[in-house]
Amino acid sequence: MGYRLSTVDPARTALVVIDMQHDFLAPGAPLESPDGRAMIPVLNDTIRFCRDAGIAVFFTAHVHRPDGSDMGRFADLYPPIASRQALSEGTPGAALYSEVDRRPDEPLILKHRYSAFYGTDFETLLRGRGVDTLIAAGVTTEDCVHATIRDAMFRDFHTAVLADACATYDHPDLGHGAMSAAEVHAATLVVLAQSTADVLTSTEFKTLATKP
Q1: Is residue 80 within 8 Å of 31, Cβ to Cβ?
Q2: In a designed cystine with 204, which of 32, 86, 114, 200 is the match (CB 3.0 to 4.6 A)?
Q3: Is 19 a residue of the active site?
Q4: What is the model's pTM?
């Protein structure tokens, strides 16, 4: 059991950078992931590698309308979202973090749920470019990265997650015990590797993408 990519064809591969926004990454942000901020150098290096290799790069941002009409259950789950303190479309906090290396011509998918495929044209853009392999990075490992790459697997894309270019935050005890960010990250990668995607380091991914 488990899934492995045997090769990566740059012309048929895309990197999706998930939700690297101020509300997740800025110091003191409502949904802050310090580990997400710490892995930005690795992520940026991977983004630049993909550009040089001819691998398409997509970005996503999780946003909600200021009137809250598209929040659904997120209003129940996340008080900062319900109060418009986080991920409110058009606010500075909802914008991509300034240290993340995105070029203006690289697509930005605005989404309202964990998965980048849900209610967006992401799949249409991938298929239009002939992409059949999707590599995921960003925040958070267990929510939007996990949901997006699992949704990609459901749609028959070849899939991988970059272990050192994803991150999350500490989870409090809600009746089942607390978990640190490192524990949540590791547990999610174990699940993904068994059932959904190849879990690679950024170095391993680069090696695959440059194999003759």
Answers
A1: yes
A2: 200
A3: yes
A4: 0.97
